[in-house]
Amino acid sequence: MRAGWLRHRVILKEPVTPLEQSTYGEEVQVYRTAATVWANVEMTAGDEAVTNQVAAASQYYQVTLRYFERLAPTWRVAWGARLLEVSAVVTDGTRRSMTLQCSEVI
């Protein structure tokens, strides 16, 4: 990995178990900060759809960072004001870096 290539500061958030309950009695997934790391964040695609007469936008990102052993597809990545949900974790064979496929939580 080239020096300076990881130029975005992101926060890795892991899910907390057991689920907490909201004031209405619903089970809510809560996330806690696991680490703050340097990464390279790139938007890969965007999409718009109309479902039940409601417009919805989706944005997809690729986040590249140094290898982090515990990272799983159930985690989230906070990048500035954006919250990204990890859908896939791809590691290289040397365990030096990993790429996360993410979608923005809107």
Structure explained in plain terms:
By secondary structure, the protein is mainly β. The chain has one domain (8-104): Beta Barrel (Thrombin, subunit H), CATH 2.40.10. 0% of the residues lie in helices and 70% in strands. The chain is built from no helices and six strands. A six-stranded antiparallel barrel has the order 1-2-3-6-5-4. The model has no long low-confidence stretch (mean pLDDT 90).
Distance between the termini: 31 Å
- Give the radius of gyration: 15 Å
**Domain module tally:** 1
Largest sheet, spatial ordering of strands: 1-2-3-6-5-4
CATH fold naming = Thrombin, subunit H
CATH homologous superfamily descriptor: Bacteriophage SPP1 head-tail adaptor protein
Q: Compute the number of strand runs.
A: 6
Order of helices and strands: EEEEEE
Overall 3D geometry? globular
Secondary-structure map:
Blueprint: E1 8-21, E2 27-51, E3 54-66, E4 76-79, E5 82-91, E6 97-104
Antiparallel strand pairs: 1-2, 1-4, 2-3, 3-6, 4-5, 5-6
Throw out a few tags for this protein.
106 residues, mainly beta, Thrombin, subunit H, 6-stranded antiparallel beta barrel, globular
Q: What is this structure, in a nutshell?
A:
With 106 residues, the protein is mainly β. It has strands spanning 8-21, 27-51, 54-66, 76-79, 82-91, 97-104.
